[in-house]
Design brief:
Elements lengths: L1 H27 L9 E7 L2 E5 L15 E4 L2 E8 L6 E3 L6 E4 L4 E4 L8 E4 L4 E3 L5 E3 L6 E3 L10 E4 L4 E5 L7 E5 L2 E3 L7 E4 L2 E3 L8 E3 L8 E4 L1 E3 L5 H37 L1
Antiparallel strand pairs: 1-4, 2-3, 5-20, 6-19, 7-8, 7-11, 8-17, 9-10, 12-13, 13-14, 15-18, 16-17
Length: 269
């Protein structure tokens, strides 16, 4: 029936509209530090069974296949692409990138879940309380907290996360803290909060914290920032394919409408 085609095509338009939104967001964040692109996964809906496979006719012959008419599609989920973005050298001593797996843990407002967020953005600053904070939002404090002495002339951060500083009048480096990297069994289950910040959920599993370079965690690279992993060419190709699919679903609606119009004319003929 043409009415089935109308509903199936309408479901396609809704799902493809979501895909356009996701692709547009990916392209908008092509220059956002540590941004991870998302993709849409679709799922076909239930089917009308007009004839079951294996049905026997009057002569006893068994049909090798059945007749099924699909009722459309829907968005099943959006999947985060967690592949490593390219590292851009900034030479800023407080810029950090994670080479490999894991996230930095930051202290957020209590209104956001348990008050802890996770990010791969590493553009850090020192606030007015000498605390190392993330240069996003209100300046979220790093976990575990790191206090940078006033007047430090040199800051060195090793690949193992060890932070050392040199102060005026001294010729030696002093260790002031140790960075930690957090991993999750299922990082796809993290909740996106915006600002390249994620939050733990039941799906992600509990956080697994370790020093950089241990237990599968990545290493810290001082003087670098991880760039967005959005591939503009791939996103534009996806956008074009989605646009064409959207147009074809629109054409299906027009065709179904014409079929219904023909039936209506026959009734009134």
């Amino acid at each position: 029936m043409a009415i089935t085609a109308l509903h199936a095509a309408a479901s396609g338009l809704r799902a493809l509209s979501t895909q356009i939104d996701v692709v547009s967001n990916n392209l908008a964040n092509a220059e956002t530090t540590a941004f991870k692109a998302s993709r849409v996964n679709f799922q076909d809906l239930v089917y009308q069974e007009l004839r079951q496979p294996g049905t026997a006719n009057a002569q006893g012959d068994v049909a090798p296949s059945g007749i099924f008419v699909g009722l459309g599609t829907r968005v099943d989920n959006t999947q985060i692409d967690l592949t490593q973005g390219s590292l851009q050298a900034t030479n800023a001593p407080l810029d950090l990138a994670i080479q490999g797996n894991g996230f930095f843990a930051i202290k957020m407002m209590q209104g956001f879940g348990n008050g802890i967020g996770y990010t791969r953005a590493g553009n850090f600053f020192v606030n007015n309380k000498n605390e190392l904070v993330l240069g996003i939002g209100e300046g979220y404090r790093l976990i575990p907290p790191i206090s940078v002495p006033t007047g430090a002339t040199t800051i060195n951060i090793g690949q193992d996360g060890t932070i050392q500083v040199q102060q005026p009048g001294t010729g030696t480096m002093r260790t002031i803290g140790q960075l930690q990297i957090t991993q999750f069994v299922n990082p796809q289950g993290l909740q996106l909060l915006g600002g390249s910040i994620y939050q733990q959920t039941d799906a992600s599993g509990p956080p697994i914290t370790s020093s950089p370079g241990t237990q599968g965690a990545g290493t810290t690279q001082q003087g670098f920032l991880e760039q967005s992993n959005v591939d503009p060419v791939t996103e534009l190709v996806t956008l074009i394919k989605t646009q064409r699919a959207f147009e074809m679903n629109s054409q299906s609606i027009q065709t179904a409408d014409q079929a219904l119009q023909t039936v209506a004319n026959l009734r009134h003929g």
